[in-house]
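Run log // design_07
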């Protein structure tokens, strides 16, 4: 009889920044004062103490914040010496004619073997077809050809280009960040629900169960506010195409790592052990090609 999967917990989406080394201009927003400080892997270790389905944090995927190559290089170098970080989602200028050479340099540089995916802050682009621009598609093809995946960061009103990207790149593994940022606070989920189902029809696209509490009312959200989104994601993607992510330390704006972990623990109550393993470790391990565990 095959052995049961190891009880692993992977945080497939968190951030780190050192403000003395590299500014984060987006933190100048007055509403972000509480997270306008440096956050390190040791901060994450000391914070992420709450188990999910009996599992404690084993490994993470660190994700870029700013569209700057030096930040990606910093994250890769940090991952090389930090055992908690098993993969990095970096940034590179997909529109650059030299994107192939840039990616080759990153992959060959310090920590380059930890680079598994790229991300662009499409949520901040005003072009409704940014992901479909010829220069962007050339960059995505260069990433695909080097074995990289793509993290899709769009708002709920930008889903059309994410769906078309999935159609045009069936051989590029893609993961939807933060479930496409549904309007939980405004309780406007009907259009988002329909779009998620359309995107989920593309089996090479998976989804992160992350970033939801900051789309809810930061001060008053409960599990009942998150559950309608959870139900849609579970029925659309299934547990084998969902992965747990904290979006820490941004999550601190709405309760933090441990409160989100407790919420996911509650949402998983009716899931089978195999489904829990997929969502908490298996999907992320497969998508980001993380080290196998016994």
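design_07 sequence
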């Amino acid at each position: 009889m095959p052995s049961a999967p190891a009880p692993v917990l992977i945080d497939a989406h968190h951030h780190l920044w050192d403000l003395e080394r590299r500014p984060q201009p987006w933190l100048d927003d007055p509403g972000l004062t509480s997270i306008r400080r440096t956050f390190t892997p040791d901060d994450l270790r000391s914070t992420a103490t709450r188990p999910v389905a009996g599992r404690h944090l084993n490994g993470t995927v660190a994700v870029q914040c700013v569209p700057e190559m030096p930040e990606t290089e910093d994250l890769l170098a940090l991952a090389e010496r930090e055992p908690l970080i098993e993969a990095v989602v970096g940034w590179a200028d997909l529109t650059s004619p030299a994107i192939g050479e840039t990616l080759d340099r990153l992959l060959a540089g310090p920590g380059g073997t930890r680079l598994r995916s790229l991300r662009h802050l499409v949520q901040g682009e005003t072009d409704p077809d940014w992901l479909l621009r010829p220069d962007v598609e050339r960059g995505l093809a260069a990433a695909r050809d080097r074995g990289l995946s793509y993290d899709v960061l769009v708002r709920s009103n930008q889903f059309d280009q994410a769906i078309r990207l999935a159609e045009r790149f069936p051989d590029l593994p893609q993961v939807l960040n933060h479930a496409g940022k549904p309007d939980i606070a405004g309780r406007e989920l009907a259009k988002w629900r329909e779009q998620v189902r359309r995107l989920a029809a593309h089996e090479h696209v998976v989804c992160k169960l992350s970033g939801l509490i900051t789309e809810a009312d930061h001060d008053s959200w409960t599990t009942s506010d998150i559950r309608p989104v959870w139900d849609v994601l579970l029925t659309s993607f299934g547990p084998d195409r969902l992965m747990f992510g904290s979006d820490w330390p941004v999550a601190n704006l709405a309760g933090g790592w441990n409160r989100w972990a407790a919420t996911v623990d509650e949402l998983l109550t009716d899931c089978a052990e195999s489904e829990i393993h997929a969502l908490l470790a298996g999907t992320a391990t497969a998508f980001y090609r993380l080290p196998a565990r016994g």
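The first strand starts at residue 9 and ends at 14.
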